User: Fold this.
Amino acid sequence: MMMSRPVRVRFAPSPTGRLHIGGARTALYDYLLARQTGGQFILRLEDTDQNRFVPGAEEELKRGLRWLGLEWDEGIDVGGPYGPYRQSERKQIYLELAKWLIDHGHAYYCFCTPDRLDQIRQQQQKLKQNPRYDGHCRQLDPDESARRARSGEKNVIRFKMPEEGSITVHDHLRGPMTIKNQNLDDYILIKSDGLAVYHLAAMVDDHLMKITHIMRGSEWLPTFPLHVHIIRAFGWEEPDFVHLSVFLKPSGKGKMSKRETSQLMKDGYSIFVTDLEDLGYIPEAVVNWIALMGWSYDEKTEFFSMNDLIQRFNLDRLNAAPAAINFTKLDHFNGLHIRNLQVEELTRRLMPFFEKQGFPGEDKKLLQITPLLQERLVTLDDALAMGGFFFKEKISPIPNELVGSKMTASESATAARKAYSTIQSLPELTHNDAELPLRALAEDLGLNAGQLFGILRVAVTGQKVSPPLLETMEILGKTAVLDRIQNAINILDSL
Assistant:
């Protein structure tokens, strides 16, 4: 089902940690729906839990979203007509609406101490009951409760859950779900410090900011009935809820957790967006990869640009089944999207990786090298291992690797000397001018071209795997190539 009207969607993370691919996927789906319908994508910060606040988390969040290309229309640092967009700056709004719920019989003040609540929990555990509030303060006279609250007695505000009947809620992926009210708790809406919890704050903000579709993780399904109860208590229109699938570990066994990322980093992977940037993945590939973890266009199409996704994304093609994180697929997409870049653009993106390793990222030289690397790269970081030798004054080949296949060191030295003479005799070292003479030399020596080129590859690059040899020699230049071959001859003579 394609949307016919502009939507208003929000990505509303807490600044309590780093942006991971689960959050990035939610933001991406929000963004696609907004762009597809000519609607608005809003970035809101749910920062009422000050105890879990992590310094720098907000900046990393914004950096990660912008790197992925997910610019927001309204929200933190860009403003908009429904601000402020930080929940910590909306405290009074939540308090006033919580008191409205009290006045209309949907909430109440609770004065129970932590010690009393702990005793209730322990008793319920002994009786093997689900822990929940026992409703002690909902029986208090409302006028008496209001007087005690006004006098400054410490309290929280709880939602007054109906004790009978049931509620039916609708999730876009799972359809209608009916839950008995007696199984739901009188959840806290306002804490004793006066700050609202997610259950109230998010529902209030979604209404006041005119959000039409709420996409979020399936971990919110257990409290989904509460959220709808709150919306209906206010008499507000309900947005469309979409609870997205969970991510499983690459093995497919168990939910992926942030705690397991250290091992992933050792393998060159991460679930955190800014890590993926540092590891040499490109945003086009990451977007393509996460889009397909929980959504598909058809059974065969897998390569998507952002524009493709905007045109084709459809809520009805989302899948509620858990999705295993497949980093092999990420590598695959990264290679495809690297090869889809213009050479000049790829050069620009490679530059920081060379400069970070102390190699001079000369535009002109790197621009020559990039076409040789492009077909072979999985990540941008691979370019260093594959092409770093271009920027070194001297290289140090492993002696045994200079010995040709099925050849001795002496035979390899002889072949290298002949190649030196052949290259030295060329008026100019270009890949076209060098190819036929070197192939003819291999034939004269009774070698196949692979044997001779293998010796020269290690001599010139210091590597057994490199970009195309003849094009590499052309970029390095005749003087550097001859110096490196002479160095290889000296090494082979010493074996």
Remarks:
- The radius of gyration is 32 Å.
